Amino acid sequence: MISVRNLNYVYGAGLPGSRQALFDINLDIETGDVVALIGHTGSGKSTLIQHFNALVPPTSGTVVIDGINVTDKAAKKSDIRKKVGLVFQYPEHQLFEETVFDDVAFGPKNLGLDEAEIKKRVFDACAIVGIKEKYFGFSPFELSGGQKRRVAIAGVIAMEPNVLVLDEPVAGLDPKGRDGILAMITGLHEQRPEMTIIFVSHSMEDVARVANHIIVMNEGSVAMTGTVAEVFSKGDELRGMGLAVPQITQITDRLRAMGYELPPHIYTLKYGERAIAALLRGEERTDV
Amino acid sequence: MFKDVIIGQYVEGNSFIHRMDPKMKLILTLLYMILLFSVKSIPAYIIATVFTLFIVCLCAVPFKLILKGLKPMIFILLFTAVMNLLMTRGEPLISYELFGRFTLSVTKEGVRIAVLMVVRLLYLLIGTSVLTLTTTPLKLTDGIERLLKPLDVIKVPSHEIAMMMTIALRFIPTLADETDKIMKAQLARGADFESGSIFRRAKALIPILVPLFVSAFRRADELATAMEARCYHGGEGRTKMNVSRIGSRDIKALVIFLIFAAAAAAAEIIV
Asked: How confident is the model over B44-71, as a mean pLDDT?
């Protein structure tokens, strides 16, 4: 359970050229939820998620995660980072060890675990992200872009956090790499239903496919929160914020406006395809 | 970590000094440095002080900002002062026996030299800060290139040196951003940069340095390709879009400086 209360953040507070990035954020995220954080560039998404991990101290307000106030200066940083795993944008840029195994083991080692536990965690994390054992001895710099990203994500999963936050996990990947990472998130949720997953995305299709809830950020404030269906039913509001609904929803909305009868809440391609196919079959029958 | 460094930080403005030709600014800064280190008498220093205050007022950069740039240098200034205080021989003011064998003494000459050295370094820093704060890095390197141009005859690659400096300056903020990002990413993975012995802390920097170097090489490679794609082939036959020339303003500045320098020299001889 994550609860954010009256969170404000000002960049360069007290200096000339300071800029407020977050305005009075209030949020509640349930344990085990998969939440998508959407919003146009510069809407404060990255700044917000860095607060979950005590990487930036808030100007005012609190973030409480499972009863620990992470914004409290007295809270132990290592406890917070054990609880919340943060995967940055382009995480493959932080790889540094000589082998894949060592890089994934970096986080668990910092937690002070024993050898056997570290080994177990590396194996588990690599299994989740789909890095085969034969790559363990490779240098991370020898891998492809998609594989590097998986290794970097495994490095955070191996710390076994209660909350996993991913900042644009599929940015810059090819379609196959994207599918892999998204399937990994879904798989992780099934295997570890108690883990809360928060991810930032610009693709509404990805959001519809993976998330249960959506948080919409706009100009440093939370503009909307709700289930995928609740948020995507407000297409006009989203467009007003420079966002959109999934393409399949745009198509079915148009069809509905043209008078075709389609079920509500079509956000994924699979469901949309079935609904339109059913509609076509139904029409053919009436024609005959 | 980098917020106090003001090298390469240009403050927009339209003062007399801002509008001077970068070549003249570089020459005058050099002459100013020579002047500071060649005078020794107090009256000459008073004249140098007046001149320094004069350029600080003239450049219209907030004095607070210049002082901020001096902050990282405090240690060097203190170190210089202490060393000079203790290491200069002469008429002792205070003596202190160390282990009954060495005598540490602060001498009258020591105090004098310590004060002079600190003042010299301080003025040197102020003078060079004024140069970088009022000149864009681009103009500065252009000025250096033009000043080095005559050395082309003895095969000094003036254009290449200037280009390297421009690129290095251009990448300071980029690499600072990158360092910040990598540091945060490793902190999120439980890295600890602040506790432990010096040796442990140095080792803790590896997770930052390796990715930083990798990204610096990647950026260098990309930049080289981008430059070649735009037909960059070095300085040969390359012309400038904006050519700045020494004008009446620069001559005026030179004359003002020479008057001050002559006054300082005169004071030096008389005393």
From this structure: 87
pLDDT at A288 over 60: no
The ipTM value here is 0.84
CB A216 within 8 A of CB A238: yes
Encode burial over A27-57: b for 16+ CB neighbours within 10 A, e otherwise: bebeeebbbbbbbeeebbbbbbbbbbbbbbe
SS (H, E, C) B226-239: HHHHCCCCCCCCCC
Residue of A nearest to B182 (CA): A94
Contact state of A96 with B215 under an 8 Å Cβ cutoff: no
CA-CA-CA-CA dihedral for A11, A14, A16, A20, to nearest 10:
30
The two three-digit tokens of residue B184, written as one number? 């945060």
CA A263 to chain centre: 28
Which residues from B are below 8 Å from A156, CB to CB?
188-189
- Cβ separation of B211 and A82 shorter than 8 Å? no
Q: Is A106 on the interface with B (CB under 8 A)?
A: yes
Q: Give A95-128 pLDDT, tens digit per residue.
A: 999 999 999 999 999 988 999 999 999 999 999 9
Indicate the pairing of strand A34-38 with strand A196-200: parallel
